[in-house]
Specification:
The chain has 14 helices and 32 strands. The chain is of the alpha+beta class and about 575 residues long. The chain has three domains: about 230 residues, BirA Bifunctional Protein, domain 2 (2-Layer Sandwich), CATH 3.30.930.10; about 130 residues, YbaK protein; about 90 residues, Rossmann fold, CATH 3.40.50. A hairpin with a 5-residue loop joins strand 19 and strand 20. The structure holds adenosine-5'-triphosphate and magnesium ion (MG).
Length: about 575
């Protein structure tokens, strides 16, 4: 266990918030001297930061080993051809860092290792008898993020634990997937963080399962809907689903034109007509391939671009330009509607359009809308689907209760890959009849360096970081106040070696600075327990302070080791 003297250590604390940092974890990592920036998205972990990183790594290693995974170390330098083979050169795009060797061969700095590991399996796992296997590593990854930010939270060079599993069947993959899901939960629990396992977008591969592990934090970049029943989902993936409340008045007579001069937005039209935006239907016009299509969504909802791309199976789909809208519908932007569009136009509708008895839509004419429009009577819907962004209050697909929205930091992501990489890279095994099949694969990523930031983002106060004891850089900080007082220093040294012998790590702040500065710094760096050796020593007492609860106890010097062990054991 480490025993460190502050006066001999590189713990460069800052009094003020650095200007470049926006969120608490980034400010505190810089202020507490955990990291130092080299350039955008590239950081050094200084001694205390590195200690936290190592403790998290060790927890991850223990849980991965317990789950039956084997640690390996793959190269960072990847020949570009392996990305050609997998077909990922395009999907990574500019995020892939590239460089050339002396013979002008192009290499990439590994952003993740599906390709490298698939090549290992292709050569080294030939038979069904070799499977299943799960290999993992803890390694620096490189991604040229468009917007590196929040310090190590979204960096261009960061540390990831990545694991890959190989199977003969979906059933076997499922066993490993569930086992790693549990291991991930234990890792985050052991680090003392509040989190949700959320259903995640599985991208184009379709039908495959994927879960993200979200540490709850107001500044998290991800949005989550969760339900008291335990179900949670990434907002981007969530199904928009409401209680069956009818929208729009029952459509009695034929639809009629109403003037809506200059009322272009849904809000404008609604207030002009004296209704709510719930009664209005937005008509969005897109170009998909060679065709123009219309999409109807409720006026109080937004379209979800990821769902649109997936349902229409068209990553290139785009909005029509104003000129194209005029040419296609005859009307200007803001007044489009489904009635009277050119024959053969496919009109898609969000599932929620089914709740409209009648609707208010654009008339495809300047300053005009139509009221009492009825789907099926006044226009035909080609297909209904879940096209809109879900929101807080939407219904849980498991128990139909209303879901709540929260923000999260994605620290882990697990994925059933199926045969995406093994098929592309011709990585196969022989079954018991000697027939060859592509491996069925899973991949499991965990953001080790991001986890340090996530822990701070969830656990801090105005004075600084509050480390969970499991990942704190030190178990105890000793604060001898008057370092010129021989008696004070003698007691500090006794406590220091006592703790050290009992397996606890100790930082002794032996700097000859004012007590105020030392107290402030100790709270900033967030060590769980602090022992102050100050004025009360003349009564034979030292002060024990617990950072998380701010509880203060005066303890006889003779009892302090025992007390600390008691608290540290909790
Ligand atoms: P994000 O959506 O945050 O960009 P991702 O989907 O690109 O993440 P994965 O490829 O699944 O991430 O990587 C696995 C894990 O690595 C993530 O869950 C995250 O914790 C971490 N990670 C990914 N990108 C970064 C980064 N730029 N900086 C720090 N950690 C990262
Ligand atoms: Mg990313």
């Amino acid at each position: 266990m480490a025993k460190m003297r502050w006066s001999e250590s590189c713990i460069p604390t800052l009094k003020e918030d650095p200007r470049e940092a926006e969120i608490p974890s980034h400010k505190l990592m810089l202020r507490a001297g955990l990291i130092k920036k080299l350039t955008s998205g590239v950081y050094t972990f200084l001694p205390t930061g590195f200690k936290v990183l190592k403790r998290i790594e060790n927890i991850i290693r223990e849980e991965m080993d317990d789950a039956g995974c084997q640690e390996v170390l793959m190269p960072i330098l990847h020949p570009e051809e392996i990305y050609e083979e997998s077909g990922r050169l395009k999907s990574f795009g500019p995020e892939l860092f590239k460089l050339q060797d002396g013979r002008k061969r192009t290499f990439a700095l590994g952003p993740t290792h599906e390709e490298v590991i698939t090549l290992v399996a292709r050569d080294e796992m030939r038979s069904y008898r070799d499977l299943p296997q799960c290999l993992y590593q803890i390694l620096t990854k490189f991604r040229d993020e468009i917007r590196p930010r929040y310090g190590v939270m979204r960096a261009r060079e960061f540390i990831m634990k990545d694991a890959y599993s190989f199977h003969v069947s979906d059933e076997s993959l499922d066993v490993t997937y569930r086992r790693l899901e549990k291991a991930y939960c234990r890792i985050i629990e052991r680090c003392g963080l509040d989190f949700r396992v959320v259903e995640a977008e599985s991208g184009y591969i379709g039908g495959n399962e994927s879960h993200e592990f979200m540490v709850l934090a107001d500044n998290g970049e991800d949005r989550i809907l969760s339900c008291d029943c335990g179900y949670a989902v990434n907002l981007e993936r969530a199904t928009a689903s409401e209680k069956d409340e009818k929208r729009g008045a029952p459509g009695t007579g034929a639809f009629k034109e109403v003037e809506t001069p200059d009322q272009k937005t849904v809000g404008d039209v609604a207030s002009f007509l004296g209704v709510t935006s719930r009664e209005i239907v937005k008509t969005l016009l897109y170009r998909s391939g060679e065709k123009n299509i219309a999409l109807l969504i409720p006026g109080d909802r937004e379209v979800n671009g990821i769902k649109l791309v997936r349902i229409l199976d068209d990553p290139e789909i785009r909005f029509l330009e104003p000129g194209e809208i005029k040419e296609f519908t005859g009307g200007p932007v803001g007044f489009s509607g489904p009635v009277g569009l050119p024959a053969g136009t496919s009109i898609y509708a969000d599932n929620l359009i089914g709740s409209f008895d009648s609707m208010i839509v654009g008339a495809n004419k300047e300053d005009m809308h139509l009221r009492d429009v009825v789907a099926g009577r006044d226009f035909e819907i080609a297909m209904s689907g879940d096209f809109t962004m879900a929101r807080e209050g939407d219904l849980c697909p498991k128990c139909a209760s209303k879901m709540n929205k929260s923000n999260g930091i994605e620290v882990g992501h697990i994925f059933k890959l199926g045969t995406k990489y093994s098929s592309a890279m011709k990585a196969t095994f022989l079954d018991d009849k000697g027939k060859s099949h592509p491996f069925i694969m899973g991949c499991y990523g965990f953001g080790v360096s991001r986890m340090v930031a996530a822990a701070i983002e969830q656990h801090h106060d105005e004075d600084g970081i509050i480390w969970n004891p499991a990942i704190a850089p030190f178990d105890v900080i000793l604060l001898p106040l008057n370092t010129n007082d021989a008696e004070v220093m003698k007691v500090a040294e006794e406590i220091e070696s006592g703790l050290h012998e009992r397996g606890l790590s100790v930082l002794t702040d032996d700097r000859s600075l004012s007590p105020g500065v030392k107290f402030k710094d100790s709270e900033l760096i967030g060590i769980p327990l602090r022992v102050t050796i100050g004025k009360k020593l003349k009564d034979g007492k030292v002060e024990l302070f617990q950072r998380a609860t701010r509880q203060v106890d005066d303890i006889p010097v003779g009892d302090v080791l025992e007390k600390i062990l008691e608290f540290a054991g909790d």
